[in-house]
């Protein structure tokens, strides 16, 4: 499959937008940013074996490659518009590419994102995406603008993606991949059963996998929070690590209530409390939003949560200082078993 | 070297621009496109062993990763403004990163390009860059607008980068890398000598390597050609392949004069005519511009060449049909020994 056949296949499937003056097929795309808007640009890369397991379905890889980028736009309260895609593939596999595009373009269509250009190269499987969105001047949510006494909130639930990864990399991981049905005993180890797919443990694992493989970029709530929240970040490296970036950029500290961290019923069912807490506090790949807002905004945020159908949970408070402190139910300080996921140095 | 240390190192070295509202360090960059301009976006990836030899110096990799992207802006007659960089590295090597940035940021400074964001990940060595530029509506040079009877022009000389690659991958390649001094006999094979570095053959090879490792994006002449040229493309995959894209997009054919293709004195010195012609017609990585313009524009183009200090050579004519035909000095049709470089399927 020569590169230009591949480009034609991609071009035939992309969404049209009026602000795309010239899309795929020339040396560069020509795009029209609406008058009075700022351009918002983010770029993220996924490498096989680092950012997704080797066994991940190509459609899930496609979805996730765009989702992690849209998540960055969500955290800025930006409206998505365009993307470019660079796809490095080890060989010719038209069926793989079509499946990849199924996932990538399904998410693009949900958010009316036009794929306007990029590159296809030979190399180890790697996907780089650059996303472009718009924001009105002064409306973008930043990391550096959290204020002391702000509430700290998160969207959705925490630790689901990390829970799926933990189950996949447990000793029983191979059984997990072959037949995703298992239960976790009190020690945290997994006992797998070749159970019926309707087994509750099976569907719980499947729902965790969905968080890992098909994260939901929080575009709607990100847009709704502009003007209400003071600061925001998306949680890619784990709550503590990412909230730490907000604190460092804002020159503040944070105090979290461990018991307030939202957990899915699946995570509760599959992991004992101690391991679950670690997954929620330090696990990566959730792509939820963590944001801060003054206490006066609580009612507004509850209304936004209802309107956007996204759970929003108040998990703590911005304080003076520079540390992110977590308080257990008994008021003592809680420390996670290990630091959050970091790309460099942690593999 | 954790990712965030690396990001701080990069941030400390980047150029500032007034139109960068928020650069490196948040979830996304905030950028201001000038009123009345269209945004021009291109994205290209370089993978080790595919787009540059394993032995390439990190500063050259940095330069080239930005150069191949700026070349796309040049071919659109766009003014460069911003870029994002995604860098996948197999391990922690601060010295490598600093050298890479030396090359990348030296070229960025030449063209006042601000690095505004991106990603650093663990993985096989791979560099993705997205570049952003501006163009006035209607002034961009496209592939699809070549007209029958247009002259066909190229900037610079052709085949130098491919010549360097050919020497590196000849049987004598290891000698070449160790001591780049050699001569090519009439059969096209290379006889290497452990000669003095001032040996003419040595400096000729070094100059070819410079074309391969440090290509010059033709930004200045690209901008100058807006309003004069009808169509343009940059030559990354080889003249015949890339001119073929212009012809396909414009619904025209092309007739080239083989003897008119510009060659450097180094290429003439190191390769016999037959092999040199093949390198000029089909070799990739030149990053020169190929453009078409009406015959009435000849004087204007000569003036642009003088003003921008870039050789411009008229090499043929756009004709009806769909083929790119090359005529040898005796008027017979010339066929290259093999098709131009194609990423997919040709490795």
Mean pLDDT of chain A: 89
Radius of gyration of chain A: 21 Å
CATH superfamily of the largest domain in chain A, called what? PurM-like C-terminal domain
Whole-number tally of structural domains of chain A: 2
| Distance, first to last CA of chain A | 34 Å
Strands of chain A, count: 15
Task: State the CATH architecture of the largest domain in chain A.
Answer: Alpha-Beta Complex
Biggest β-sheet of chain A: count, sense, barrel? 7 strands, mixed
Binding site for Mg(2+) 3 (chains A, B): 27, 72, 234
Pathway (chains A, B): Cofactor biosynthesis; thiamine diphosphate biosynthesis; thiamine diphosphate from thiamine phosphate: step 1/1
Binding site for Mg(2+) 4 (chains A, B): 27, 72
GO molecular function (chains A, B): ATP binding; magnesium ion binding; thiamine-phosphate kinase activity
Structure description:
The first copy, chain A, is α+β, with helices and mostly antiparallel strands. Helices cover 35% and strands 24% of the residues of chain A. Chain A has helices at residues 3-11, 58-75, 94-110, 160-169, 173-178, 200-213, 219-225, 239-250, 265-270, 273-282, 298-308, and strands at 20-22, 29-31, 38-47, 79-89, 114-122, 126-135, 151-155, 182-184, 190-192, 231-234, 253-257, 289-293, 312-319, 324-327, 333-334. In chain A, strands 10-12-7-13-11-14-15 form a seven-stranded mixed β-sheet. A four-stranded mixed β-sheet of chain A has the order 3-6-4-5. The two termini of chain A are 34 Å apart. In chain A, 54% of the residues are buried.
């Amino acid at each position: 499959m020569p590169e230009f056949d591949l480009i034609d296949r991609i071009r035939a499937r992309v969404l049209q937008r009026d602000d795309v003056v010239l899309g795929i097929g020339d040396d560069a795309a020509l795009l029209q940013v609406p008058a009075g808007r700022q351009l918002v640009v983010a770029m993220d890369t996924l490498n096989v074996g680092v950012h997704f397991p080797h066994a991940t379905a190509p459609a899930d890889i496609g979805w996730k490659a765009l989702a992690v980028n849209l998540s960055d736009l969500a955290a800025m309260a930006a409206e998505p518009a365009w993307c470019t895609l660079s796809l490095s593939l080890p060989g010719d596999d038209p069926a793989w590419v079509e499946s990849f595009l199924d996932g990538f373009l399904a998410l693009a269509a949900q958010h009316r994102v036009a794929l306007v250009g990029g590159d296809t190269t030979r190399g180890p499987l790697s996907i780089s995406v650059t996303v472009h969105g718009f924001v009105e001047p002064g409306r973008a949510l930043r990391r550096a603008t959290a204020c002391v006494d702000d509430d700290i909130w998160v969207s959705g639930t925490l630790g689901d993606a990390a829970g799926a990864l933990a189950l996949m990399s447990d000793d029983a991981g191979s059984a997990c991949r072959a037949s995703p049905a298992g239960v976790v005993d009190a020690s945290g180890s997994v006992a797998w059963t070749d159970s019926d797919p309707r087994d509750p443990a099976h569907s719980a694992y499947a729902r965790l996998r969905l968080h890992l493989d098909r994260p939901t970029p929080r575009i709607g709530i990100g847009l709704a929070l502009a003007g209400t929240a003071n600061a925001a970040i998306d949680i890619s490296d784990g709550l503590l690590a990412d909230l730490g970036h907000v604190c460092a950029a804002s020159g503040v500290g944070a105090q979290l209530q461990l018991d307030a961290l939202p957990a899915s019923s699946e995570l509760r069912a599959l992991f004992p409390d101690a391991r679950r807490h670690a997954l929620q506090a330090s696990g990566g790949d959730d792509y939820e939003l963590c944001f801060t807002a003054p206490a006066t905004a609580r009612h507004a945020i509850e209304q936004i949560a209802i309107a956007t159908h996204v759970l929003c949970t108040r998990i703590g408070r911005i304080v003076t200082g520079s540390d992110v402190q977590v308080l257990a139910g008994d008021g003592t300080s809680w420390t996670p078993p290990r630091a959050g996921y970091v790309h460099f140095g942690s593999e």
